[in-house]
Design goal:
Layout lengths: L1 E6 L2 E4 L4 E9 L3 E10 L6 E6 L3 E3 L7 E6 L4 E6 L8 E10 L7 E4 L3 E6 L1
Parallel strand pairs: 2-11
Antiparallel strand pairs: 1-3, 3-8, 4-5, 4-9, 5-6, 7-8, 9-10, 9-11
Length: about 120
């Protein structure tokens, strides 16, 4: 019913930049929140950045990453600057989608996009 499609991942050298995009489509009345998570090999999935009533960042990315939204396009972006090897992970988009006027937000996930930062 709702699909989240991420793009923009890839291989970059340390100090470089990448911009991730995530577009939501399907049966959408509104989107309550959107965010980015990441999961490195052998580690738990962790929050990177969140945009809802406020914007929040993980301490490890503050000052380097910026989350933004285009509500008209149901799209969220993650601008990642000054990338470090420890930023290497699969990045997942998450969105709280309201499908009807009477429903509550339901969390949907994208399929993930790989970001690899070489030293």
């Amino acid at each position: 019913q709702v699909q989240l499609v991420e793009s923009g991942g890839g291989l970059v050298q340390a100090g470089g930049s990448l911009r991730l995009s995530c577009a939501a489509s399907g049966r959408i009345f509104s989107i309550n929140f959107m965010g980015w998570y990441r999961q490195a090999p052998g580690k738990q999935r962790e929050l990177v950045a969140f945009s809802g009533g406020s914007i929040n960042y993980a301490d490890t990315v503050k000052g380097r990453f910026t989350i933004s939204r285009d509500n008209a396009k149901n799209t969220v972006y993650l601008q990642m600057n000054s990338l470090k090897p420890e930023d290497t992970a699969v990045y997942y988009c998450n969105a709280g989608v309201v499908q009807t006027r009477e429903s509550i937000p339901y969390p949907y996930w994208g399929q993930g996009t790989q970001v690899t930062v070489s030293s």
